[in-house]
Automatic annotation (TrEMBL):
<keyword id="KW-0812">Transmembrane</keyword>
<keyword id="KW-0813">Transport</keyword>
<keyword id="KW-0472">Membrane</keyword>
<feature type="transmembrane region" description="Helical">
    <location>
        <begin position="325"/>
        <end position="345"/>
    </location>
</feature>
<dbReference type="InterPro" id="IPR000522">
    <property type="entry name" value="ABC_transptr_permease_BtuC"/>
</dbReference>
<dbReference type="GO" id="GO:0005886">
    <property type="term" value="C:plasma membrane"/>
</dbReference>
<comment type="similarity">
    <text>Belongs to the binding-protein-dependent transport system permease family. FecCD subfamily.</text>
</comment>
<protein>
    <submittedName>
        <fullName>Iron ABC transporter permease</fullName>
    </submittedName>
</protein>
<feature type="transmembrane region" description="Helical">
    <location>
        <begin position="260"/>
        <end position="286"/>
    </location>
</feature>
<keyword id="KW-1003">Cell membrane</keyword>
<feature type="transmembrane region" description="Helical">
    <location>
        <begin position="110"/>
        <end position="130"/>
    </location>
</feature>
<keyword id="KW-1133">Transmembrane helix</keyword>
<feature type="transmembrane region" description="Helical">
    <location>
        <begin position="168"/>
        <end position="191"/>
    </location>
</feature>
<dbReference type="GO" id="GO:0033214">
    <property type="term" value="P:siderophore-iron import into cell"/>
</dbReference>
<feature type="transmembrane region" description="Helical">
    <location>
        <begin position="81"/>
        <end position="98"/>
    </location>
</feature>
<feature type="transmembrane region" description="Helical">
    <location>
        <begin position="298"/>
        <end position="318"/>
    </location>
</feature>
<feature type="transmembrane region" description="Helical">
    <location>
        <begin position="12"/>
        <end position="36"/>
    </location>
</feature>
Amino acid sequence: MDDRAAGSPGGRAAHVALFAGLGIALILICLGSAALGQYGIGFGDVAASILRRLTGPLGLGHPVDDPFAESALWQIRLPRVTMSLIVGAVLATAGALMQGVFGNPLAEPGVVGVSAGAALGAAVVIVTGLDVLGQFTVPTAAFLAGLTAVLLVYAFSRANGRTEVVTLVLTGVAINAVAGAGLAFCMFFGSQTARDQIVFWQLGSLNGSRWTYVFSIAPFALIGLVGACLLARRLDLLALGDRAARHLGVDVERLRVTSIVLIAVMAAAAVAFSGIIGFVGLVVPHLVRMVVGPGHRVLIPASMLGGAVLLAAADVVARTAIAYADLPIGMLTAAVGGPFFFWLLRNTRARAGGWI
């Protein structure tokens, strides 16, 4: 047994070091992300302005001297920073849950069709020009379509009161293919403007994040993150195998259903407001697992922090890498995650001697 999983002093030290490092990185990246941009704001001014808002009547801190900078900080940059933290934490946690349920470090939320379904829902609204909910029309359609795709995957893969993991994965592949065909259909019949919107949405971006969007996604994120932490101990038991987990009192089918529902809610909410951002749910849990081992009681909260740090850092690069340009954040995560996935694939095959 891994000494980290057994709670040895070395394992506890690794856990403390990891959480401390992630916490410090999170604070520094948040301050840096809020300060950096085409209109520069000092790090000290950012920290003082945030401190002033947090402490309220205590009178600590102070607003930025430039009223325009103060407004830009609170109306544009901080909502985007907050959205990057939520989306990153949600995607990484969904990935950790997915890998725990499937028992495979190569699994990620897109396997169950949530990303493809959300993309199709958004594309239908964009092409048809529906605007029944104003600025929330596209995110709402994407959220509902992503949930629907996951429910279809679960319904089609269930037989005799049970859901087999292999059947679930293969059904997800089929649903992804159908959603991809629908997306191509929308792009073929849509106008050039609609096509451009669909392509940009598929690449993922946090541009245009507002506090209203943050408050809309926050309840779904909170439910998913808290639920994932509550499932951590049972996921550790599930790692022993279905039969052993049942003997230890785990309702395996209920655990899988609950996990899939939480994954669907979190991933659909994240994708609805940010577009498709790949590889966060794959890379972060695996990197955390390499540091602290497979125990989900540490893996899940560490993945939350790691995902938030990764996406916030990627968003800084997206905003500042090219002057007066905002790169699609999904492109950046794919550029890093793709080579990592290839390395992970080769490494897994080398250790296992091939796929079973």
